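Subject: for your reference before the review

Hello V.,

The reviewers asked for a structural picture of the protein, and I figured it would be easier to keep everything in one thread rather than splitting it across files. Below is the amino acid sequence we used in the manuscript, unchanged from the supplementary table.
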Amino acid sequence: MSALPSASTPERLLQRLDWQVIRRLDGLLQGDYRSLFYGYGVDFADLREYQPEDDIRYIDWNVTARLGAPYVRRYVEDREITAWFLLDLSPSMDFGTGPDQKRAVLVDFVATLARLLTRHGNRVGALFYGRRVERTLPARGGRIQVLRLVHELLRHPHWPRAPFTTLTPLLEGALRAINRRALIFLVSDFISAPGWERPLGLLGQRHEVVAIRIWDPREERLPDVGPLLMEDAETGEQLVVDTQDRRFRARFEAAARERVAALNATLKRAGVDLLPLATDEDMVRAIVRFALLRRQRRR
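And here is what came back from the structure prediction:
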């Protein structure tokens, strides 16, 4: 286990994001973040029988089973939002072929959203996953909480090798730790062993879940650079491939498309919105695009 030193302190990182990201978002979204955060600070009001236009995530399964007909919980919106970040910090998140690794993009994204949320009086917490759920940061508000979150991210160890990642413990940990309905950001590259789909579905029934898929372009398309040594970031397994072979590159890209399509289908079944965020993408544009999409869906 090794923790790589960071060139940035939490305070300097937040200052950079305030100038480079948050100020631009304020201008583009005109301070209206309801399209991103709307309706997640809620309190239970009452139950009523299910109607066709109701969101299935609000079905109370215990009452439904007892009465023999589907019933949904109704909520009243509270001004305060509690948001949780489920953070995949497994070895594959240290991959990156451009100026930034996936982990660096994760840090910037989480710090940005945590800053926006707490700036409007909300609370944020986090679960940190490397080889297991290694730390839980209880939800609190204020700028100090954001600095605490960034500090924990910057000091979190970089595991050189690990068994193949499974997101199941992270999601099951969230099911145990988060009791009140919350806004949950699952931030991962989703390079995981199967089995996490069921706990994600359960989490989506209790909370509003948004998936942030951080990816590197070279994970989906290989350049034509001749023989290339590829290494599995999780297991360390190495393989020499010939990237000049068009058929190999085509198979590689087809397999990547299938993985992405399968992930999209899984998230859709669970009722989870998706924000893809590439390591070479402008974060402000990605967040604005996602906000517009969510605004359209809520009309």
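For the response letter, the relevant points are probably these. The chain has two domains: 10-40+80-215+257-297, 42-77. The chain has a mean pLDDT of 82.

Happy to draft the paragraph if you're swamped.

O.
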